[in-house]
Amino acid sequence: MFRIKKLDIFIAKQFGMLFTGTFFICLFVLMMQFLWRYIDELIGKGLSLDILGQFFWYMSLMMIPQALPLAILLASLITFGNLGESSELTAIKSAGISLMQAFRSLIFITILIMVASFYFQNNIGPNSNLKITQLLISMKQKSPELEIPEGVFYDGIPNSNIYVQKKDIKTGKLYGIMIYRMTESYEDQAIILADSGMLQSTAEKKHLILRLWSGEWFENMQSDELANSAAVPYRRETFTYKKVILDFNGDFSLADASTISNNARAKSLSKIHNDVDSLNKVYDSIGYSYLKDTKALYFYKPNVGRKDSLKALAASVKINIDTLFNKLTPQQKQQAVTSALNKAQGAVTDYDFKSMITTDGDKNIREHYIEAINKFTTTFSCIIFFFIGASLGAIIRKGGLGVPVIISVLVFIIYYILDNSGYRMAREGIWAVWFGKGLAPGVLTPLAIFVTYKANNDSVVFNFDLYRNLFMKMFGLRVKRHIFGKEVIIHDPDYQKDAIILNQISQEIIAYNAASKLKHAPNFIEMFFKYHPDHDIEKINEKMENVIEDLSNTKDAIILSEINNYPILAVKAHTRPFERRWLNEVAAIIVPAGIFFYSRMWRFRLRLLRDLKIIKETNEHITKRILEM
């Protein structure tokens, strides 16, 4: 039976305080990131405080599901990092309580947060997303003179399409202007070209004043009398300065929600399922209609009957197109080629348009599926981040906001890259929807299991000192001795015996240098395929370490200083790269690895030569000091 214990309450309190603080920090960071994307929509628009308040309120509600997993990750990492740093985690384990038992209260809290997150995404989040999308669209329409971009057509002004080649932000002047004035009739369109101009709103925000310099005005003059005539008169006007007043309500008004009805993020799970069924029926009917038209146009099969016998006979006759084409006159050939090209171009344009409609439909359906799966993956990421954070905190045992913040940011960046990449691939149809949205949880779930297993077994997989020593050993970086004087000495050194041993070591070094030829390059075959152990260096190192251990009990400062000059020997690095024979053979076969290890071994041979010289000189200094004593 599950019983709430004092340890569960203690850990829950620690986590609760940290989760509250980290949640608001993460929410603030995510809001600033979102705000930075849309800062141009807010600056200089004259928006009232209540509109800005609504924007920030709905933005915070929309960011809560994303802030929850990151806050859980950071809070759990700091919680167990603090417990490990203060040795409380060690005391918990020494009392016979496993790490998973210490996790159980926070697992229960995380599950409650997951339920709240799913409810929020399914009920509150869609409305918040809808509202903030409406606000963003409305903000873009608030002051169009500030929104006109360079190099693209802008349709934010009713019945007008404006192209600006260049814009001066300081003066507000526009250069290289092209304007299409559109009405209900295609024949009544007007095209305005101008070298420069300025667009400003009136004081009452009901109209826009467009001032143009050095331009031309082209406009069709369609009238009722000429409605059935093919000839449509037009007027052309050249001007040096012209003032045009455009109808535009600049006051802030919320955009119609029906314009963003296809936004999948603004829908609950049940709404998504209903709309997906409707969208499938609509686009299936459109696709079937396109298929029917194509079959009727390009795959027509004449009916074979009494009335159509002549047509059937004509269809059964094999016609040589080249023969018919060669019988035509040059003018007829040109007309035939032109007609064929026009039909082909018309068919390509028609298929491109149909392809655009069906592609947009498929993309819209995929976005609905993606959003439906996203509600579950975002919820599931809470428990994943908890196990990653709590386990890493128990392994690293570093509290505070230093190492935990760095690790949390790295984990969240990995999750964000995987999730965003999967979303884009799934949205474009390159990957399956389930694979794209399941990529980030699929990668991080094994990581969470791995670190939880390592933390539960007190593994040192994240012991940075271990990796540092391995790195130094791999690249042959030196490790210096640090031997200090002892306050309490039980046994004094045997100076006479140590001096004799040091002299023996010096003689052995002289003999070894004469026989080994360390200056020469190592033999490649013997290094990787025919290993010969070097026991002489192992014996020299063993004798030297015994003398150092005995002399470390001395009170003489000179001897203590001298024994710190002894290098730490790598007794096997100059003979072979690895202990196992098959690893050496594989390293020799792989050319880049073989070159690296061969160069490394040669370096260790030269280093050993220098180390032996230092040992010999240090032996002489210590022996001389012992004689003086």
> Can you count the helices?
19
Q: What integer is the average pLDDT?
A: 80
Low-confidence blocks of residues: 224-230, 302-307
Portion in strands: 5-15%
The biggest beta sheet reads: 6 strands, antiparallel
- The count of strands amounts to 6
Structural class: alpha+beta
Order of helices and strands: HHHHHHEEEEEEHHHHHHHHHHHHH
What proportion of the residues is helical, as a percent range?
A: 55-70%
**How many whole angstroms does the radius of gyration measure?**
41 Å
Spatial strand order of the main sheet: 1-2-3-4-5-6
Shape, per Cα inertia axes: elongated
Distance between the termini: 74 Å
Write the layout of secondary structure elements.
Blueprint: H1 6-37, H2 39-42, H3 49-85, H4 88-94, H5 99-140, H6 144-147, E1 153-154, E2 160-167, E3 173-181, E4 190-201, E5 207-220, E6 234-247, H7 269-298, H8 309-316, H9 321-326, H10 330-396, H11 403-427, H12 433-456, H13 464-474, H14 495-516, H15 524-528, H16 535-551, H17 557-563, H18 581-589, H19 591-628
Antiparallel strand pairs: 1-2, 2-3, 3-4, 4-5, 5-6
Helix pairs in contact: 1-3, 1-5, 3-5, 3-10, 3-11, 5-10, 7-10, 10-11, 10-12, 11-12, 14-16, 14-19, 17-19, 18-19
